[in-house]
Sequence to fold (288 residues):
Amino acid sequence: MTTTHHPRPAAAAELPAVPLTTEGYSVLHQMLRFRRPAWRDLPATEKSAMAREFSDALSAMEKNPSGQSALYSLIGHKGDLMLIHFRNSLADLNQAELSLARLRLSDYLEATTSYLSIIELGLYESTLKIYKELADQGIEPHSDQWKSEIACKLDRHKEAMHPRLFPEIPPARYACFYPMDRRRGEDKNWYTLPLEERARQMNEHGLVGRRYAGEVKQIITGSIGFDDWEWGVDLFADDPLVFKKLIYEMRFDEVSAVYAQFGQFYVGVRVPAAKLEDLLNGNLPCGE
Fold:
């Protein structure tokens, strides 16, 4: 009796290791130091005029229909102000920077750091499903047909996820921002794990965040190729204690306990543009 062997399609032999993502708004964080000693020496009328000019420009950015801006009073020594900008492109972010830099108040603001990234949704589970479907059809990874099929599926996902990819900046009283990496050491290397294992760990990680859904809004941004870390994380909440509780609980997930590395944390209080002059005069506006 002769047995016929059916060769496994080449496309199914080895699936790509890179998970699919969809991207939305480009994001810029600006951390600024306020040159208060120089500001004190100015006449009151000049200070008021500068504050109004900057406030008017920022007020328009707060309402910008194609990506908003928001101002926060930073707590601690890492800076005095944090500006968060959401825009449709990197060029639009640069224009937001330039528009504020040309105002007179910018002479009294010094950058301490910044962070450039883009809102990103990681699709670990969908990636596995899509890759296996295409492989079962005998489509060669990275071929033109493979790229076309994936682009079509990502377009549909981007349309469905539009509110998450292009959100308004949450109006919460407090914001917490920090950058992070996945470990790439000789002993523990996130990028050498099989895609299925990374998907399992990320699913476990996501379950913790979903338990805090009513208390905190989380926006993840990708920064590989844009800045010094791999991701940026923004948390928005009316009660800042939730930042501590959420991040502490997530540290016990395998993906964080074994593979996560964190940068500096920045925590600020939301300040409406209309209240900028009060803030520059040393008075933090009360919550709305």
About this structure: Residues 1-12 have pLDDT under 50 and may be disordered. The chain is about 40% helix and 25% strand. The two ends are 82 Å apart (CA to CA).
